[in-house]
């Protein structure tokens, strides 16, 4: 199965379908690494490792794609933006953003947006087991509401077999999301790139694909991601 995935990746690479080829390379590599781990013969294990290290995906270095979201653009819900990078290999996610704060701070990255992002991960097709969140404390009276909201999300995720690890930092500035299949997404506004809905019963309130966006840039990277055996 690993060899077939790599073969498919090469075909996609030749067809200049680089994003899809990277996903197939990663799937094939993970399957091949499972074989390496299960092999008892040290000579065979060494030979397998050499073959994996010779794959073009591992020698190509980094991948970078930029997506420009225009002011008032629609069609950029979380599922649409992230689905290409959330294959079945994804089991661990890192979210770094300093503004996962009070839900009433409309100009900042709200707890509701983070909750919607978590819902997307729970639905799959990925098999997420752990989410790591690094953010900063809300200031003033909003801190207790922030902690209470995050703990509620944490408990709810636990009911779905997902662990949410929460850490706070006073020096965090960057905003990025990383998956353990090697994909990293940086959004200028974090996950809070949607405009405030016109009303509670307006189109786009529930469906983010229909919600107008603020102008922002999304940078997608892929780095060499292999596990050492």
UniProtKB/TrEMBL annotation:
GO biological process, one term: midbody abscission
Record organism: Formicarius rufipectus
Any single Gene Ontology cellular-component annotation: midbody
Organism superkingdom: Eukaryota
CDD domains in the cross-refs: MIT_C (cd02685)
InterPro entries: MIT_dom (IPR007330), MIT_dom_sf (IPR036181), MIT_domain_contain_protein1 (IPR052817), MITD1_C (IPR032341), MITD1_C_sf (IPR038113)
Gene name as annotated: Mitd1
Cross-referenced Gene3D superfamilies: MITD, C-terminal phospholipase D-like domain (3.30.870.30), Phosphotransferase system, lactose/cellobiose-type IIA subunit (1.20.58.80)
Occurrences of domain MITD1 C-terminal phospholipase D-like (ranges): 75-222
UniProt-recorded name of the protein: MITD1 protein
Signal sequence region: none
Residue ranges annotated for the MIT domain, each copy included: 2-53
């Amino acid at each position: 199965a690993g060899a077939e995935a790599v073969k498919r990746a090469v075909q996609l690479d030749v067809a200049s379908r680089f994003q899809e080829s990277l996903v197939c390379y990663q799937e094939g590599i993970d399957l091949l690494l499972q074989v390496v781990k299960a092999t008892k013969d040290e000579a065979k294990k060494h030979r397998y490792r050499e073959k994996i290290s010779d794959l073009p995906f591992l020698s190509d270095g980094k991948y970078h794609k930029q997506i420009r979201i225009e002011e008032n653009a629609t069609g950029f819900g979380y599922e649409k933006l992230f689905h290409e990078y959330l294959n079945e290999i994804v089991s661990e996610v890192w979210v770094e953003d300093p503004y996962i704060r009070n839900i009433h701070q409309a100009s900042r990255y709200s707890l509701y947006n983070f909750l919607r992002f978590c819902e997307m991960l729970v639905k799959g097709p990925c098999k997420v087991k752990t989410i790591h969140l690094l953010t900063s404390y809300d200031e003033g009276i909003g801190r207790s509401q922030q902690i209470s909201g995050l703990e509620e999300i944490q408990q709810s995720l636990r009911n779905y077999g997902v662990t949410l690890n929460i850490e706070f930092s006073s020096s965090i500035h960057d905003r990025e999301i990383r998956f353990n299949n090697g994909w990293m997404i940086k959004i200028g506004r974090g996950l809070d790139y949607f405009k405030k809905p016109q009303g509670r019963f307006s189109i786009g309130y529930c469906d983010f694909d229909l919600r107008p966006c603020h102008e922002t840039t999304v940078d997608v990277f892929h780095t060499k991601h292999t596990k050492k055996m």
